Amino acid sequence: MILRVATLDDDPGTQAVVHIWTSHDAPWLDDEPGAPGYPEWPPGR
Fold it and tell me: Where are the domains of the chain?
């Protein structure tokens, strides 16, 4: 599932397990520690 953070009104109560398209991240975005990140799609996609 791809979830765009700007679509949330409340805390979903879950943690991210992977970050994709990090090449498009805003400079202020703080990624979830420990979750792998990929500039585009993860390998094997």
Answer: 1-45
